[in-house]
Specification:
The structure holds two protein chains of two kinds. By secondary structure, chain A is of the alpha+beta class. Chain A has helices at 10-41, 46-58, 63-79, 82-102, 107-119, 125-138, 143-155, 160-173, 178-191, 205-221, 226-237, 361-377, 382-395, 401-414, 419-440, 512-523, and strands spanning 5-7, 245-251, 256-265, 274-278, 281-282, 287-288, 297-303, 315-322, 327-334, 339-343, 452-454, 462-463, 474-476, 509-510. Chain A is built from 16 helices and 14 strands. Chain B is an alpha/beta fold. Chain B is 30% helix and 19% strand. The chains are: A alpha+beta, B alpha/beta. Chain B: InterPro entries: FAD/NAD-bd_sf (IPR036188), GDP_dissociation_inhibitor (IPR018203), Rab_escort (IPR001738), RAE1_2_domI_C (IPR054420).
Chain lengths: 541, 651
Amino acid sequence: MHGRLKVKTSEEQAEAKRLEREQKLKLYQSATQTVFQKRQAGELDESVLELTSQILGANPDFATLWNCRREVLQRLEVQKSPEELAALVKAELGFLESCLRVNPKSYGTWHHRCWLLGRLPEANWARELELCARFLEVDERNFHCWDYRRFVAAQAAVPPAEELAFTDSLITRNFSNYSSWHYRSCLLPQLHPQPDSGPQGRLPEDVLLKELELVQNAFFTDPNDQSAWFYHRWLLGRADPQDALHCLHVSRDEACLTVSFSRPLLVGSRTETLLLLVDESPLAVAWRTPDGRNRPSHVWLCDLPATSLNDQLPQHTFRVIWTAGGAQKECVLLKGRQEGWCRDSATDEQLFRCELSVEKSTVLQSELESCKELQELEPENKWCLLTIILLMRALDPLQYEKETLQYFQTLKAVDPMRAAYLDDLRSKFLLENSVLKMEYAEVRVLHLGHKVLQANDNTIESLDGVTNLPRLQELFLCNNPACSAPASRLLPQAGPPQPAGQPPVPSSGHLGASGRAAAFSSQQPHLRDSAPAPCPLTYWN
Amino acid sequence: MDNRLPTEFDVVVIGTGLPESILAAACSRSGQRVLHLDSRSYYGGNWASFSFSGLLSWLKEYQQNSDIGEESTAAWQDMIHETEEGITLRKKDETIQHTEVFCYASQDVDGNIEETDDLQKNPSWVASSTLIKPLDSACLSEEMHSLYVSSYEVPAKGTPENNGEVTDIAETLVKEEYCGYKTYKHRVSDGAKDEIKPILEDNSDPPKGNRITYSQIVEEGRRFNIDLVSKLLYSQGLLIDLLIKSNVSRYAEFKNVTRILAFREGKVEQVPCSRADVFNSKELTVVEKRMLMKFLTFCLDYEQHPDEYRAFTQCSFSEYLKTKKLTPSLQHFVLHSIAMMSESSCTTIEGLKATKNFLQCLGKFGNTPFLFPLYGQGEIPQCFCRMCAVFGGIYCLRHKVQCLVVDKESGRCKAIIDHLGQRINAKYFIVEDSYLSEETCSNVQYEQISRAVLITDQSILKTDSDQQISILIVPPVEPGACAVRVTELCSSTMTCMKDTCLVHLTCSSSKTAREDLESVVKKLFTPYAETEIDKEELAKPRLLWALYFNMRDSSGVSRSSYNGLPSNVYVCTGPDCGLGNEHAVKQAETLFKEIFPSEEFCPPPPNPEDVFFDGDDKQPEPLGANTIIIAQLESSEGSKNLESSEKHLQN
């Protein structure tokens, strides 16, 4: 029969394929070589554009070649007429698109496009937005493209409301989209700027409630999708609490003023300075950390000149102003006294920083109820359990203490992979709760007057945090898992403490639980700003 | 024109419905010489899609069919040898019954028709469905082909002095513009001259801009592709798999069904079935969302959790759903819209299996599990025919076969004799069952499918976009009756004109199509009228035109119930009532395996670069569209079908 079909055998096909690949490799290598030679010789002309486009067209991730192209384009910019340049730019944009089709997640390609568009006097931003929309239609989670879109939106001054509507449309299609939720978190504060008095990043309540409803819909639909929980966490805790000065202490003996902050801060860098007013007149002093290292710290000290401490006046007033955060505190040194101090009590201010910090506790309360509802339906969902724990913590750590501990139990059982992290979090909460209880009972945690810390019979493994206790003189560490660290790191400022414990005396140590929790929080990126060492322990007299 | 065909083939396929077309493609693909015939002037048989005028001609054909008596069968007698005998094939198609047409759209033609003052302007539903008893009682007695036709405005007692004149004008107009329609219309008038009156609009009330008139429908008739069977393709179904595997998919284009709807407590609602739907739903509370998602997630791998349903295997699925903390609306959604099962008869396991199947199809091409072929379901058989033709199959439409020639000694079929008296030899014969004679089928019992085709002015659930493709299951009012499946197509599916929707209703029959379906039509639609006051009624889409008919469902007939068929004659059934095309594909594959046990069924075609022709024979023919031979394409329908498939090939 005529016209009968014959099909090549698989061996024939394989051979043809192999030859083709060989040919490709040869071309690739020779083109690369030529480009490098030309670049070395400074021959940055259009032929380099041609050669690099051959290679980049097949492999857009060759970053050096993108650099090469930039050099060529920069040179041509000077040489060419505006018309020629326009044609060149048009070709370059087209070429970039073809590269993005080869690899829509190529760092080099997106970066090159940013660079090119940024140089154009009259870039067609509408077209770029359209390009982003197209690529995000194919892969709605392509963060390279999201990144580029934010660049374009900023350049083209797209109203945040339009961009928000865009994130809406993508979330509607598939809410498991970290980039889209994240973009919302950037856009919403822009759309609803709060009056100066409010902390940065807070949302008006109606907007907040609408977002909470949206995100609730997401995690009720699929509680195992992390993206919605992340956004939920942001909505409830997005506003960082303002920096505060917790404690001020002035010592006549040592001619020294000590300040403790609500979080580790770096004092002395350009704008963020700590002003000291002695009897309402500024005094220039040199601030230092207890361990002498210039890095963010809870505690900063300065030496005072004798004039500020003389006994002529009935009292001296020391006012410290933290310029960056607008926080200040004042303490008085009375005539005849050796020291003066001022500190917050647990009842005045939030002592411990919470993950969730929405002003209105009604919002937190209703979120807690929704989460509990979800937890009943999904008793084993770890995100839900963790959120409940954090909500309870933010609402009332003591009232919910028992419940929180039960939830920890459940959470550890359903998420054994993170048992150690949960143990740390639990221990941190317990410690904070103990401090709070004592504070509420007006019982000081430590005998401040004695400058002695009794820490026998604990599970303290390291003494790193002790450097934050500059006035500490005696530390008891009997019956703790000892650990060694250079003795010099311990309390260098106020003179070495007299270790009064039984041998073996630990030369260094730290208040384990909270320090470790902080370390873990950095390994667990989903827990933002886990709390640092609790403040009341940082200072006493 | 020489109509003579080659006389030697490996396989002769009679009928161009979906299973026959798949088989033809499979045979041709595996190197068989295939002759594919259809006595009709169009492809697809009962799987076909028609333009509006095409559909009217189709209706007319059934009307005429009933008038043609059995021709003498002696013509082929002298063509066969003494050692042979003939098995006659049926001359007329008897698979369609109880066709009834209703036109609601106004039939004015640009105000050319004089005003008739005393016509009823706002007739009730009852008036609109008044039947005009057809012509002669002979036709009625034949029953199978009685064509009931009614016009919209039919005053029971008209004004006789106007009647004749008006009818004539209307007839003339129609006659001038649409020849095909004329005869049809005329027949109606013949029988019912005193009662028929075309709808005329009061000229004092000029038509509003967006109102669709009947003449517009006729004018834009080519925009319609009206399916005889209403089916969808499951994204993970056998047909999709076959289309992809065999590369036939390149001849067709598809759109994803956009919505799954439910009809509950008199209201049409959208069923949230995908994750995105559930998330976006405004109707469900968050707890309902969780319960629904939880249940659906479980259904996806229910086999892994036998404890969850073991205790309920003896219960019905609806009973089982009641135990799953689902609210009544969610139970309705799962049972009727997702599992698409009946309340009374479906067991828990069947329900879980159907739900799983639905869910597995989700997300492959979009947010619903179904695809609809652009230009209608009728495209699919043609795509397979194209594949067959590409590999050398020969096509003849309007080619009747008089009889099968059987060798007495071996009992095998040797040849066919066509209507031209030509004898064509082959080894295997594949016949669609509507071609088999009454004698052959005397023991066969058939089911029936009730169908309605509606042209409406808007969607049954309006949203921002009017381009929606929806499927809706309306559960029966009385338990035990059949649910009615409604698919609504928008103009972007290339099956209807702009600003209209094409609605298909399907259920398995218990009575005539109209009796089975009219109650659902009334619930969802309101007849088109010029002055509509009732607000509630206004919310419903309005009917412009409606067709009811019953189609024979032979899908359950087993091969053994036919009398005296040779073993090398294979029978394909007509369309079944189901939503998917699984039955047709399975049937084609089974028959192919029976005929050619060692051949692969529709393997992927080779890469064009790897294909070359064996050069030692005659002049090689180039591959491609021009090898398709379509004989006897005088009919406009035939060329229309060819055009539309040509269009896709280019795409």
